[in-house]
Write a structure and sequence with these properties.
Blueprint: H1 2-16, H2 25-77, H3 79-83, H4 86-141, H5 145-215
Length: 218
């Protein structure tokens, strides 16, 4: 799961905004502020997904491990009784691992979509910033005074539009992930718990057979 979330974001953030813009200081500071805010959202998204996945999976996994450990203790008491159930235990574990992997795959896909949306928004801010640079350089290189004034007016309009769209993009992404992250985690939790519960019921049944076997005179 980490590879599907954090690494994608880390690589994009690390490569997306490395060079100064070479805009006038007041404009550059505002553009930089937008990009840094979106970068923080990207990092927070990856970290939130990773932390929640770890929390969700720990408890069911521990329950399964505890149940299997208990059977190993029974094996010490009666190797024959547990050995008679080994094939069934292995089958239950295989099914559980397959179900849990299906849960992880579904969550990874949805997480990748969230990551993609955040990355796209960040990418638009970065490329939009460089587009402002290109227009600013064009204005600097214009020698005709009339054309220079016109160019500056267009730059001001482009900058205002960039800032407005950037703010809207950040707000949209914030609202989106505030809904989508809890939703994907909740779906993942339900899927994991369902798979774990099925395995636990099956293991409990096997364990009862082992207990009956141990209680019988040999």
């Amino acid at each position: 799961m980490k590879s599907a979330v954090v690494i994608i974001l880390t690589l994009f953030v690390a490569s997306g905004w490395a060079q100064p813009l070479e805009l006038p200081a007041d404009l550059e500071a505002q553009v930089q502020s937008l990009v840094e805010e979106m970068t923080e959202i990207a990092k927070a998204t990856g970290e939130a997904l990773e932390q929640q996945y770890v929390k969700v999976v720990q408890e069911p996994q521990k329950e399964l491990e505890d149940a299997l450990d208990q059977m190993e203790l029974s094996r010490q008491e009666s190797p024959e009784c547990v050995a008679a159930q080994d094939q069934e235990i292995a089958s239950i574990v295989d099914v559980a691992e397959g179900d849990l992997q299906s849960c992880r795959n579904a969550a990874a896909q949805t997480s990748a979509e969230i990551v993609s949306d955040v990355s796209d928004a960040l990418q638009q801010l970065v490329f939009g910033g460089y587009d402002l640079v290109a227009h600013y350089q064009k204005c600097k290189n214009t020698t005709n005074s009339v054309l220079q004034v016109t160019c500056q007016i267009r730059l001001a309009k482009k900058f205002a539009l960039y800032m407005s769209n950037g703010r809207k993009s950040i707000e949209t992404i914030r609202q989106s992930i505030s809904v989508r992250i809890p939703a994907v985690i909740d779906d993942y939790r339900q899927c994991i718990q369902s798979a774990s519960s099925q395995a636990m019921l099956s293991l409990q049944e096997v364990n009862s057979h082992i207990d009956v076997c141990i209680s019988q005179p040999h």
